[in-house]
């Protein structure tokens, strides 16, 4: 339980890689932060382990085979409110007494909880790209109305956020998003037709969940970051560049109109942007991440060949289509990546599935969360059909 001096944090997506890192930060900064709510999609045992350590007031679980047993176990650990089912995270976000929602959920599932928190005037630390990509205008409008802040956790956007502190957006010439290049850097699509899920999940820098790791391999994650940056910072797509930086010490850069660059640097460790988001607008003393400039050596940059990354092109296409197209992109990608991980389609067919969805897309404005959710539903249907057609043709395996 929290005391009045601690920032009360609702952590949704607690059992994933970002959620675990949030817990590490809270563990180190126990006098500053308290986890008053935790949620997970289906990892009930892991969620209960966290409940035993952090003693939250509420817990939310979307899927479980033994709901009554989970409820009883949570209550034995002192949890006062248990939410279960498809709406569990949304209901928790609507009711939890907290100062900050950390959205570390995967995919579009984080949209409604984030919106509800912002509508209540609760700040959101956002580790979920899809929320701003699919419904950015709605989230920004809700934050403006309530006065809540949206602070990015994603390392690239955290870096930009930090570099823009004290600056006006009119002073920005370009934003430079860095990428490690993922596991298949320099390999053309013709060389990737038969790569396995295990190969795609072998990221050279980060340990992440399977979906975002595959997105890193296709560079779709970088395309989503372009859209998210446009939503978060109010720049045009033409002002956002992508550069490969294999050391991943520079997490992104802002180029100003006078020719100056500002960059945020550290060894790659998600606990640092998490700590910044949790403590914003303050900076706090921490020993979690230490960077020794003498050990970094050189910093290198390479241009990104967009022709090698069709998913990246599709993200720009969705951004230019506008309206609900980015929401359709996110949903189609979730379906396609899941199909690849199940070995139903090949790696290169991920982009084909997404492309087919966008080919059939009829643009509508992003003017309500209901319209975004309908776009999500339609894109999943179209993507499922595209996956089924490929499975029927048995074209996914060499």
CATH level-four homologous superfamily name of the largest domain: RNA polymerase sigma factor, region 2, helix turn helix motif
Share of helix, binned: 40-55%
Which spans have pLDDT < 50 for at least 5 consecutive residues?
A: none
How many beta strands in the DSSP annotation?
12
User: What percent strand?
Assistant: 15-25%
CATH third-tier fold name of the largest domain: Rna Polymerase Sigma Factor, Chain: A
Number of domains: 2
Provide structural commentary.
It contains 16 helices and twelve strands. It has two domains: 7-153, Rossmann fold; 158-269 and 302-393, Orthogonal Bundle (Rna Polymerase Sigma Factor, Chain: A). Helix 6 (129-146) packs parallel to helix 10 and helix 13 packs parallel to helix 15. The strands form two sheets. Strands 4-3-2-1-5-6-7 form a seven-stranded parallel sheet, with helices on both faces. It has a five-stranded mixed sheet with strand order 11-10-8-9-12, covered by helices on one side. Helix content is 46%, strand content 15%. Helix 6 links the parallel strand 6 (123-126) and strand 7 (150-152). The chain is α/β, with parallel strands linked by helices and 398 residues long.
């Amino acid at each position: 339980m929290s005391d009045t001096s601690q920032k009360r944090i609702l952590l949704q997506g607690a059992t994933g890689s970002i959620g675990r890192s949030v817990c590490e930060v809270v563990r180190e900064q126990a006098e500053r932060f308290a986890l008053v709510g935790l949620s997970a999609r289906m990892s009930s045992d892991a969620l209960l382990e966290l409940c035993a350590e952090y003693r939250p007031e509420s817990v939310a679980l979307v899927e479980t085979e033994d709901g009554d047993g989970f409820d009883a176990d949570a209550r034995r650990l002192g949890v006062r409110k248990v939410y279960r089912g498809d709406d569990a995270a949304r209901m928790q976000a609507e009711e939890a007494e907290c100062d900050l929602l950390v959205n570390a959920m995967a995919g579009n599932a984080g949209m409604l909880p984030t919106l509800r928190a912002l509508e209540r005037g609760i700040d959101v630390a956002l580790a979920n790209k899809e929320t701003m990509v699919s419904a950015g205008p709605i989230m920004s409008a809700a934050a403006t109305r309530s006065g809540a802040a949206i602070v990015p956790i994603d390392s690239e956007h955290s870096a930009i956020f930090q570099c823009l502190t004290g600056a006006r957006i009119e002073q920005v010439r370009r934003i430079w998003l860095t990428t490690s290049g993922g596991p298949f850097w320099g390999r053309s699509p013709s060389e990737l037709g038969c790569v396995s899920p295990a190969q795609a999940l072998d990221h050279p820098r980060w340990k992440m969940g399977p979906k975002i790791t595959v997105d890193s391999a296709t560079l779709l994650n970088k395309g989503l970051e372009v859209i998210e940056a446009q939503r978060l910072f109010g720049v045009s797509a033409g002002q956002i560049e992508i550069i490969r930086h294999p050391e991943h010490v520079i997490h992104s850069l802002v180029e100003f109109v006078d020719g100056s660059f500002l960059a945020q640097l550290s060894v790659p460790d998600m606990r640092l942007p998490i700590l910044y988001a949790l403590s914003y607008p303050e900076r706090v003393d921490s020993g979690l991440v230490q960077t020794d400039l003498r050990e970094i050596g050189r910093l290198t940059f390479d241009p990104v060949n967009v022709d090698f990354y069709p998913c990246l092109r599709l993200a720009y296409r969705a951004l230019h289509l506008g309206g609900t197209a980015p929401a359709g992109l996110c949903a189609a990608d979730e379906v396609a990546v899941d199909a690849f991980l199940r070995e139903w389609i090949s790696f290169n067919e991920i982009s084909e599935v997404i492309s087919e969805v966008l080919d059939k897309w009829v643009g509508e404005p992003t003017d309500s969360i209901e319209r975004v959710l309908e776009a999500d539903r339609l894109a999943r249907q179209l993507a499922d059909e595209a996956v089924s057609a490929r499975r029927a043709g048995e074209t996914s395996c060499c």
